[in-house]
Amino acid sequence: MDATGSGERDEAHQVPGLDEVEFEELVRAVLDRMHGALDQQARLQLLLDAVVAISADLSLDGVLSRIVAIATSLADARYAALGVLSAGRQRRLRTFVHHGISDDVAATIGDLPTGHGLLGLIIDRPEPLRLHDIAEHPSSYGFPPEHPPMRSFLGVPVRIRDRVFGNLYLTEKVGGGDFTAEDEEVVVALAAAAGVAIENARLYEEARTREEWGTATAGVVALLSNPKRGNDSMQTIADLACQVAGADVVWTVAGHDEDHVEVTAISGAQLSGADLTALSVADPMARLVLEKSEPASVEDVAELDGGGEVLQLPGLPDVGPLLAVPLNPSARAKGALTLAWRRSNEDRYYTVDTQLAASFAEQAALALQLGEARDDQRRLAVLEDRDRIGRDLHDLVIQRLFVVGLGLEGAARLTDRPEVAARVEQAVDDLDATIKDIRRAIFGLGSAEQSNDIQGEVTRLVERAASTLKFRPSLRFEGPVRSLISSDVTPDLLAVLAEALSNASRHAEATAVEVVLAAADLISLSVRDDGRGMGPDVVESGLANIRARAEQRGGTLTIESAPGAGTALFWSIPRG
């Protein structure tokens, strides 16, 4: 009985110990759950605070920075990053915002990721991904030498409805463990809120872009409507469009039809005269706009048919997307405004609203046409006044000088003194020279004043010469004369052409005259006639002035002529 009683006492002594152990484990489990519930409640509160915080910022950069900072706190991650996808067809990362790595370390690492390897996997398959060790995944590219070590990984897509904006990446769980399912749930909820915030920020940026286009449109209209505007209106339009659209290169073309166009201004790139001439022919979008009078675009110019080869624009080998809108600079010419982006900056192309660009060009064209109408009215008034002066000089002054000259010639025959006759003959010669000067001045009155449309001014000058020559000279332009001939060269060029046509009219007795104005690395003007030519002893008077105008600009004057073989005048100066 003692033994039995002792055994019972031992068993009774052991049972309370076991119960005590089970009770402690139960208390510990309850406490763990309480702490877990408190942690979850704290996380939810932090998540709610995060939604309010990121929704309060309308700038995209500010939203992205807040999201990555909050994500590290919610998931107890040491590092976090948010990559925003590009709008282009490649769907790679165009923005990568990181948290936890200092700027010095980031600079040492080098270029930010663009969306390859493991990051690209989540881009291609937008769904959450948790990993124990990044290096063990087959899509991992590894890290650069200076990159901090990272093992655990959690990646979540940032989306709104069915559209994916980017991905949220977290690495290195604090404490060395793995990211849990609860971490994933919280980060997915944060990513959903982030998608809404990013969409709001993008809408805000679009509103600001519309405002910038509106400001640019109002500014260019006010500038072009100013009667004292300069001669670089097309350049102003190209510069403003390049700035607002974030384009790499912008140019304008103009012509009477799609087969005869030239580049009138270019912004964002320096091209040679030969490349500008070739660009006038090679621009596919501008020709389509001129033909259909509506905007046209292409995501990559290399996709167009280049005669069996990859199409490239002269002087712009890395240009990809193109957008062209109608820009009719005058009532007599059609035109287009072409915006181009490098392939590395194609995202900017997708953010440009075609209608905003078209409206900008339309308003600029209307301002140009109104200014052209005002200039035509002013020019007409000036020309009418010049015609009156010319008629008065011709009908009154020249006729009186003729009468005086005839009287002097008669008086010279009545005197017997040789010295008197010689003086009278000299006076008659002086009167004849004065009459020639007056006629030259009358011809010069027919040339228009300085204008930015050198092609139009040369055309009008040649047409006015037809009334004196009794036939119309042939006229040809080579190269983009409007864009390469600066306004300060225009007066000299028109003066040289006026003198050459005047000589052909007064001395050459020609039946045909050919005028060619070319613009490339040299600005050259040639005037040929089939008249009687010049002898070797001809005295240069007006030709000396032409030669002086060329030499002052570092150019040359060459004259090829022989009796009975006509005359060819070549006047050229360096461009710029």
Question: How would you portray this structure in words?
Answer:
The strands form three sheets. This protein has a five-stranded antiparallel sheet, with helices on both faces. It is an alpha+beta fold and 576 residues long. The chain is 53% helix and 19% strand.
Q: Could you provide a short overview of the structure?
A:
This is GAF domain-containing protein. With 576 residues, the protein is an alpha+beta fold. The protein is 53% helix and 19% strand.
Key features of this structure:
576 residues; alpha+beta; Beta-Lactamase; 4 domains; five-stranded antiparallel beta sheet; 15 helices; disordered N terminus; two-component regulatory system; His_kinase_dom; HATPase_C_sf; GAF-like_dom_sf; GAF domain-containing protein
Domain count, please report it. 4
CATH superfamily of the largest domain: GAF domain
CATH class value of the largest domain = Alpha Beta
The averaged pLDDT comes out at 77
Radius of gyration: 41 Å
- Count of beta strands: 15
CATH topology annotation of the largest domain: Beta-Lactamase
- Ends apart, CA distance between termini: 127 Å
Range of strand content: 15-25%
Organism: Nocardioides vastitatis
InterPro entries: GAF, GAF-like_dom_sf, HATPase_C_sf, HATPase_dom, His_kinase_dom, Sensor_HK_TwoCompSys, Sig_transdc_His_kin_sub3_dim/P
Keywords: Kinase, Transferase, Two-component regulatory system
Pfam families: GAF_2, GAF_3, HATPase_c, HisKA_3
